[in-house]
Amino acid sequence: MFTVILFVTLAILVILYFLVRAGWQDSRLKILRKLHSLENFSPSEVYLSPGILGTVGIAVDKPGGKVCLIKKYWNVYFAVYDAWDILAAEVLVDGKNITRTSSGLSLGGAALGGILGGSLGALICGYERRQEVIPEVKKVELHLTVRDARLPSHYITFLNQGTAIDSSLLEEAVGQAGHWYDLIRVMAGG
Fold first, then answer.
1. By the 8 A CB rule, do 41 and 168 touch?
2. Which residues have C-beta within 8 Å of that of residue 86, sequence separation ≥ 6?
3. Domain residues for 105?
4. DSSP secondary structure string for all residues of 37-58
5. 127-146: b or e for each residue (b if 16 or more CB lie within 10 Å)?
6. Which residues make Cβ contacts (< 8 Å) with residue 150, sequence separation at least 6?
7. How many domains does the chain have?
8. What is the C-alpha separation between 119 and 136, in angstroms, rounded?
9. Three-class SS string for 67-116?
10. Smallest Cα–Cα separation from 50: which of 76, 77, 72?
11. Kind and range of the H or E element at 144?
12. Are strands 136-146 and 153-164 parallel, antiparallel or unpaired?
């Protein structure tokens, strides 16, 4: 009897996984269609983070000098800003700042270049000052502050699961966050 219950439970979980995945893919296509239909915005690059509860993302129109921040929970929300309306950008690892650009200031914290150079040494070094040993990272985010009093703070998630510090998944997430950080920094003139 226990085996049957276990099998049925496992089958239900597998079905739910594929339903959620299919729903996310369908949702992603709808977001991309709406994004491409926005007036005065032609996306050059797009990133959408998968999420069970919702999706957040970012898109840039390089020739137009615009950035679109995307949030989807029940409805899709697009906020298009001129690049110079981005007041600050930072990459956060488990909520700790590893880079920051604000109103033209340069990097602070651990050097992102060291992280993207094939090693997470700079990240680990940033933590070692406090003599902490960090076996895993749970979250990698890009935090943007924009000139918008209604919604000034935006977080784009690149990793949202416990991942070993030497994992290629973590290196990819930090690389993606670094790419968008650099892109925003260049477009905003920082």
1. no
2. 67, 144, 145, 146, 147, 184, 187, 188
3. 2-187
4. T-TT---SEEEEE--SS-EEEE
5. beeeeeeeeebebbbbbbbb
6. none
7. 1
8. 15
9. EEEEEECCCEEEEEEEHHHEEEEEEEECCEECCCEECCCCCCCCCHHHHH
10. 72
11. strand 136-146
12. antiparallel
- pTM of full prediction above 0.85: no
Distances (CA, A) of 162 to 113, 118, 140, 169, 175: 23, 20, 10, 10, 17
Q: 154: which strand partners?
A: 144
Query: What is the full per-residue pLDDT of the chain (190 aa) written as tens digits?
Result: 778 676 667 666 666 555 455 454 557 888 889 999 999 999 999 999 876 557 889 999 999 999 999 988 778 889 999 999 999 999 999 888 776 655 443 333 344 444 444 444 444 444 444 445 567 888 999 999 999 999 899 999 998 888 888 888 889 999 999 999 999 999 988 6
> What tokens does 38 get?
């926005």
Residue 62's identity, in one-letter code, is K
